[in-house]
Design goal:
single chain, mainly beta, 140 residues, six-stranded mixed beta sheet, 39% strand, Immunoglobulin-like, 14% helix
Length: 140
């Protein structure tokens, strides 16, 4: 009878242990990759409120509006990382991905590299292809 009680206790303890133990996750999701800097189109400040966006593999993962600071238009944004625990769902970049930036609808000439937990100073510039020519005003 003592053996039966001991065996029952062992099974009960093992059952409680199995139900109470949570699986250990691989770790927290990656930290975002941050970018900040000045924003110019055709060499000039863009209007405050202009949208700057970041894309990885053609998918937009972050956007922000441009602010004016000390005479320059500036941006700051965080591009999220892809959580490896969510299989089949891509939430952002992975180490080494190229981040492509847009000022409004204009793609910038600069790109970034996605790296978890970094904060990179990257000035963005673009060209609309329009050239403004100023001619002197002559009054006769």
């Amino acid at each position: 009878m003592k053996k039966l009680g001991l065996l029952l206790s062992l099974f009960l303890t093992a059952g409680i242990f199995l139900f109470c133990v949570q699986p250990v996750l691989a770790g927290p999701p990656p930290l975002p990759s941050g970018f900040y800097g000045k924003v110019k189109i055709n060499g000039s400040n863009v209007p405050a409120g202009t949208v700057v966006s970041a894309r990885v593999n053609g998918v937009q993962y972050a956007s922000t509006i441009v602010l004016t600071y000390l005479g320059d238009t500036v941006y700051s944004l965080d591009v999220p990382g892809d959580d490896p625990e969510t299989v089949g769902i891509i939430e952002g970049g992975v180490e080494g991905d190229t981040v492509v930036f847009f000022i409004g609808t204009t793609q910038t000439t600069q790109t970034g590299t996605w790296q978890s937990g970094t904060n990179v100073n990257l000035n963005l510039s673009g060209s609309t292809g329009q050239i403004t020519i100023f001619l002197p005003l002559v009054i006769h």
